[in-house]
Specification:
Helices cover 67% and strands 0% of the residues. The protein is mostly helical. GO terms for molecular function: DNA binding; sigma factor activity.
Length: 156
């Protein structure tokens, strides 16, 4: 018989790593943070509340990452997905613009537009009110569009 950890948490390891990668800015740091988060999650999985285990695991990833308090990286790996809410542009310019956003805003875009999490789940993960998630997400989208446009002008 498979454990709750195996059936409910392990399917979300890719999302945990992707989120950690955007927070940390490097594959090595993301692997370290993901591993620490999974180790912390394992003993808690038997008491995992009903609902989305992905949001629960991502909250543990965020807490694990925030304990390290890393500096904001200069470059980030490309995300696996793009959503229609992001500005038009080539992937490289969007990645460069996203990497320039403060981590709190970048985090909102990744959790909502890449991971497709609900506002209440993002609020739980980030430890903020759902209204704050909506406000930060709107600001992040505007910042992203402005930065993509600025990078386009610099390249021209």
């Amino acid at each position: 018989m498979r454990s709750p950890f195996d059936t409910r948490v392990l399917p979300h390891l890719d999302a945990a790593y992707n989120y950690a990668r955007w927070l940390c800015g490097s594959d090595a740091d993301a692997a370290r943070v993901t591993e620490a988060a999974v180790l912390a999650a394992r003993p808690l999985a038997d008491s995992l509340p009903p609902g989305d285990a992905r949001a629960w695991l991502l909250a543990i990833v965020r807490r694990t990452w925030s304990q390290d308090a890393p500096a904001s990286p200069d470059t980030l790996p490309a995300p696996p997905d793009r959503r229609a809410t992001w500005p038009a542009g080539d992937i490289a310019s969007i990645d460069a613009a996203l990497a320039r956003l403060p981590v709190g805003y970048r985090e909102m875009l990744v959790l909502r537009d890449v991971e497709a999490l609900h506002y209440r789940d993002i609020a739980q993960i980030a430890g903020i009110a759902p209204a704050t998630v909506m406000t930060r997400l709107e600001a992040a989208r505007q910042m992203l569009a402005t930065t993509v446009a600025m990078l386009g002008k610099e390249a021209a």
